[in-house]
Amino acid sequence: MINLTRTFACLLLLGVFISGIFFVSEDPYSINKKQTTFGETRSVAQLIFSTNRLELKEKIEITILNSEIRNSTLKTLASTTWKFQENSNFLDYQFFNTEIFYGKKGEVFPKYTTCSSYNFKNIEINQIDNTKIIFLLMPLKQEIETHRLHTLHKDIAVCDNFKNFDIFKNKFQNDNIKILDIYKIFNSSNKRFYESGDTHWNDLGVKKVFLEIIKISHNVKEIQLKESGTKKENNLVLKRLGLVDKTVSQNQYEINFESNENKKLLIIHDSFFEKFYVSEEFLNKYFDSELLSWSEFKNMPKNDINNLLKEYEFVIIESSIDTFFEERILVFSK
């Protein structure tokens, strides 16, 4: 029986592989894997008789990824489970094992790796003359929108990063180092600050945070938000990992402030500042801004970091809060 099962599985995979050669999907799904290549141009048949086993493996995986049978099957599974998922207030019907899980009505939430208390003894954040640093540590969506979780998730999926944040803020905040409290800014049970099919902030979340940033950067107090129509939500995570292309509208907002002087700003960021969430057009209203990814920033020597930050009036250091306390804070090690 075991041998029969193995034979059937091998024949099934072979069928999917062959279909990928002759019947290529126009819109292949990629759940956890990006299509990559090592520059090899030979076919699978040629690579079988070569020593380039790594490229052969990649070619086989990409061929399977592009299989019409594979993609049709995944689309059917995703569509079927989503019918239960989007109407559920009690269970997560997730079929695929990815870095997200689902809350009520198919709300997308990020998984996390650790949630331990951080020891700040070896951390030092130096002030820089004429440069104000603004720390923007974004809470996990489930820390803000706990009421959208299934009951079974509430005890195991809410990582209390606020404890680390509170210590960090009390220890390092001063006149030149501002640490925004997003937990406080997003404190509302009847408003959304994250997109439903995504793990990132929505337009209200972006504008609420920048309302506070502009107060610091432009030294103003009386500014407010106003609604300015609607826009499409970026349900990018749901589409990439859940294979569901959901169309949802959200309210769009404007900040009732016009800048006479654009401040020179550097933004050290992760995915929260991708153009889908924070547009260049919006930033240009208030700042002469440049963006630097964490992958570049964390590999810079300390002297280079200090020299870089000196070039700007303001520096925003943005990070998802879990990743910041897991690894990125080590940039500030003594």
Please sum up the structure shown.
The chain is α/β, with parallel strands linked by helices. Helix content is 37%, strand content 16%.
Task: Outline the structure in words.
There is one protein chain. The chain is an alpha/beta fold and 334 residues long. The chain folds into 3 domains: 69 residues, no CATH class; 33 residues, no CATH class; 216 residues, no CATH class. 37% of the residues lie in helices and 16% in strands. It contains 14 helices and 9 strands. The strands form 3 sheets. Strands 4-3-9-7-8 form a 5-stranded parallel sheet. Helix 11 links the parallel strand 7 and strand 8. Helix 1 packs across helix 3. The relative contact order is 0.12.
Task: Indicate the topology.
Layout lengths: L1 H21 L21 H5 L4 H13 L2 H18 L14 E3 L5 E3 L21 E7 L2 H4 L6 H4 L7 H11 L4 E3 L2 H4 L17 H15 L7 E8 L3 H6 L7 E7 L7 E7 L10 H4 L3 E7 H4 L4 H8 L4 E7 H6 L8
Parallel strand pairs: 3-4, 3-9, 7-8, 7-9
Antiparallel strand pairs: 1-2, 5-6
Helix pairs in contact: 1-3
Q: What is the overall shape?
A: globular
As laid out across the biggest beta sheet, the strand order is 4-3-9-7-8
Structural class: alpha/beta
The number of distinct β-strands equals 9
β-strand amount: 15-25%
Spans with pLDDT under 50 lasting ≥5 residues? none
Instruction: Please work out how many helical segments DSSP would assign.
Output: 14
Number of domains: 3
